[in-house]
UniProtKB/TrEMBL annotation:
Name the UniProt record assigns to this protein: FAD/NAD(P)-binding domain-containing protein
GO-annotated biological processes: secondary metabolite biosynthetic process
Ranges in a coiled coil: none
Biased composition (Acidic residues): 595-614, 630-648
Molecular function terms, GO-annotated: FAD binding; oxidoreductase activity
Similarity comment text for this entry: Belongs to the paxM FAD-dependent monooxygenase family.
Lineage: Eukaryota, Fungi, Dikarya, Ascomycota, Pezizomycotina
Length: 648
């Protein structure tokens, strides 16, 4: 499959729909994980002009992820999408009366010269608590009507009836309508075929289908180096799920650590615990660099629901976690051991403590001898994990994609930017994606052409930030395993300088966690409106007496309060190609990114003339500020455009 153009053109849409027959825009969401369900809730609850449907590949949802400790940006993203999402999170993660309590992730050196020293406190925020992925998703799914989600829908093929304007990429397979779907084929240009032989048709397609995304493969091309997940450093996560009471009473885990989200660092692997099920259960793990088998199956890196290694399906344990260990739920299944005289690696069969000896692990064997120089609390957790590693998996991420959207097809969440779990921000980045998409689609989009511009604006504000988060997660892994990282142009072993290490963690956490999600939505909104205006003016200049297309309704609310009657989309003026318009707008996104000043995302005034916007939009202003100025000059433009009543 050929890769698509790096600058997404507009969707093909030449049918002018009468005002009285305007139908809702049909949005297909592939994947019913955290990102997909959050986006659906944001659209279903707040938009009457969008017909949204989720297609999830599993027949019955059984998430296999571990615990989540959502940071401030994730909490604010949920609030931006829909307050019901945030309420469902609080109901499952926080006991009544705890919403105002603060929690932070404590990072502690477990080995080395400075063992026992706390070197980081990440993500301190009110309302931040840990939650199991299954519980979070269950709360999201409760907000999605059953008629808006279909299970057992494994995507095997995606194609478009009409080639998007402005691209030379040929139309894929010709459409052979099935019984009863010929009308939908004519109305909706995007087509999805599932493994069960059924088909769906849509105006807009959003892929939230995880690290092994079919939509990513469609957008980038199956042979693109960035399409498939990678585990460059061979990370393996040895993990167990255990009742908190058992962890404390049987294994001697410090009750204080069991109530927080500690990360204990050392050269043979870092150790962490996440309380779940309102503190009744613990997800404990040891992550080791270079320990993954070459044929290891990838498990959850942030929001994917891929099955973990070594566990037979169907996987039921997260649905039945009460007072049982993982091994008791899975039965007698156990992993193979390596010979006693083999060369030892962390997963080899080394000697274990009396507490862990005698109990067969249901997963890969963790060598506890390697952790004798770790602090006692870390050793206790290691022995506890080694006794039952049935929830283990190899983790992976994605190399950077060169686009997130093309025409009316886009990807979000892990499908767009799967990250290693070490920065604890994968799910948060997925929620940020959903927040931007929900904001643009529900407030501004009525046509496929508007949808293509909204998806381009989404890509413009989300690509750099989300891909930086992927890089940060990789660096976290290096730092956690006592490897050197680049700091101020020099390779530094941060574990040998606790003060510098603390500063480094603070800086990285500020980028990922202390982020203004609402302003990100505003930036995307401003970019969308300026692209919309620029194309409208270009059309006006090429069509002579034709008036510009009407801007979408300007609203600062999350809910569209009234439907505005408008005509269908106009066609491109003769002699004007969509490709030339998008190429003239290539620097538009760069200008928006330059307008972001510093970590707080504040806009700064730009006084220089933007020749690229000038050539496209024929603007009479010397300064073209992306977010603030459109509110000032928009009224004059709308007065002129209301006479036409056309809709872009």
């Amino acid at each position: 499959m050929d890769a698509l153009a790096s600058q997404p053109p507009m969707c093909s849409s030449t049918i002018r729909e009468p005002e009285s027959t305007r139908r809702p825009l049909k949005v297909a969401i592939i994947g019913g994980g955290i990102c997909g369900t959050a986006l659906a809730v944001g659209l279903i609850h707040s938009s009457r002009h969008i017909d949204c449907h989720i297609y999830e590949k599993v027949s019955e949802y059984r998430d296999v992820g571990a615990g989540l400790s959502l940071h401030k940006n994730a909490i604010n993203a949920m609030k931006q999408i829909d307050m019901e999402l945030f309420k469902s999170y609080l109901e499952r993660a926080v006991e009544i009366g705890q919403e105002d309590q603060e929690m932070a992730t404590e990072v502690i050196l477990a080995a080395g010269k400075f063992r026992g020293i706390k070197v980081g406190e990440l993500g301190r925020a009110k309302g931040r608590k840990s939650i199991s992925r299954a519980d979070l998703l269950a709360g999201f799914l409760e907000q999605v009507p059953k008629d808006n989600i279909s299970f057992g829908k494994q995507v095997v093929k995606i194609w478009e009836t009409h080639s998007p304007l402005g691209t030379e990429r040929p139309t894929t397979d010709s459409v052979a309508p099935k019984n009863g779907d010929s009308a939908e084929v004519a109305e909706h240009p995007i087509h999805i075929e599932f493994a069960d032989g059924s088909r769906a048709h849509a105006d807009v397609l959003i892929g939230c289908d995880g690290i092994h995304s079919t939509v990513r493969s469609y957008l980038l091309g199956e042979d693109n180096n960035a399409t498939k997940p990678k585990n460059h450093d061979g990370w393996q996560v040895y993990r167990t799920l255990i009742p908190t009471r058992e962890a404390v009473e049987k294994w001697g885990v410090d009750p204080k650590l069991a109530q927080t989200v500690p990360i204990l660092l050392g050269p043979h692997g870092h150790i962490n615990m996440i309380p779940m099920k309102k503190g009744e259960m613990l997800s404990a793990g040891v992550a080791i660099r270079g320990a993954a088998r070459s044929d290891a199956a990838f498990g959850p890196s942030s929001s994917t629901a891929s099955p973990p290694q070594y566990i037979p399906l169907p996987l039921l344990w997260l649905d039945h976690l009460k007072n049982a260990s993982v091994s008791s739920l899975l039965g007698p299944h156990s992993g193979s051991s390596t010979p006693e005289n083999s060369s030892r690696t962390p997963q080899d069969n080394g000697s274990q403590s009396p507490k862990s000896r005698g109990k067969r692990s249901a997963g890969p064997v963790l060598n506890t001898d390697l952790y004798k120089d770790y602090i006692p609390e870390a050793q206790k957790i290691v022995h506890m994990v080694a006794a039952d590693t049935s929830a283990s998996w190899a983790v992976a991420d994605h190399d950077h994609a060169r686009l997130y959207a093309h025409g009316c097809v886009a990807m979000a969440g892990d499908a767009a930017h799967a990250a290693l779990p070490f920065a604890g921000n994968g799910a948060a980045q997925a929620l940020e994606d959903a927040a931007v998409l929900a904001h643009l689609l529900r407030n501004y989009v009525r046509t496929r052409e508007q949808a293509s511009m909204a998806l381009w604006a989404y890509q413009s504000v989300r690509m750099q930030r989300s891909q930086t988060a992927v890089e940060i997660a990789r660096e976290y892994g290096q730092v956690y395993s006592f490897n050197k990282v680049l700091v101020d142009g020099k390779m530094v072993a941060l574990h040998e300088n606790p003060t510098l290490m603390m500063q480094w963690f603070k800086k990285q956490a500020a980028f990922t966690n202390e982020f203004d999600v609402a302003k990100q939505n505003t930036n995307a909104e401003g970019l969308y409106l300026n692209i919309h205006r620029a194309i409208s003016k270009r059309r006006n200049s090429t069509n002579g007496d034709a008036t510009p297309a009407q801007l979408p309704p300007k609203t600062k609310t999350e809910e569209v309060k009234s439907e505005e009657a408008s005509n269908g989309p106009t066609t491109m003026g003769e002699g004007t190609s969509a490709r030339s318009i998008w190429e003239s707008l290539k620097k538009l996104r760069g200008r928006a990114e330059e307008a972001l000043d510093g970590d707080d995302g504040e806009l700064v005034e730009r006084d220089e003339t933007d020749d690229d916007v000038e050539s496209v939009a024929s603007t009479e202003k010397d300064s073209y500020d992306f977010v603030n100025e459109y509110m000032d000059d928009g009224d004059d433009e709308l007065e002129d455009e209301e006479e036409d009543g056309s809709d872009l």
